[in-house]
Amino acid sequence: MTEVRWLDDREEQAWRSLMAMQEGLAEFIDRQLRHRCGLSHADYQVLAHLSEAAEPLRAFELGRLLRWEKSRLSQHLTRMEKRGLVRRERCETDQRGWSIAITAEGTELIEAAAPQHVTDIREVVVDHLTKAELEALTAIGDKVRARLAAQDPER
Question: Is pTM, for the whole model, over 0.85?
């Protein structure tokens, strides 16, 4: 067994700061979306991907974009379908599969939520960082995501 390389004070401070930021930002975004639009952050993510797609997305494609497990996606889509935000359609090229389409009501909700969501993101993140800080944040995010992808090639 290899010896554990514990975090030094600087590394631990950076890690805890990142975790606190991530949790706080997720809580803020979810609270704002629920309060203003009646959408959870997960609802918003699904609707955003569907609204940006040129055509309905295969369920596995949507799951890959969201980085969700199949069961989580299926359960969430069922709840959204009951609310009239999305619909499942038989895939034209593979009758065993499903495509997911945004409904008119889903489109209306995402179009109302998106400007407010962007305003919130500007308010708590973007407008308070310098150009260099934004570039560093992007570089850090890209580097960590690449490392995660290397650790789990199936995702």
Answer: yes
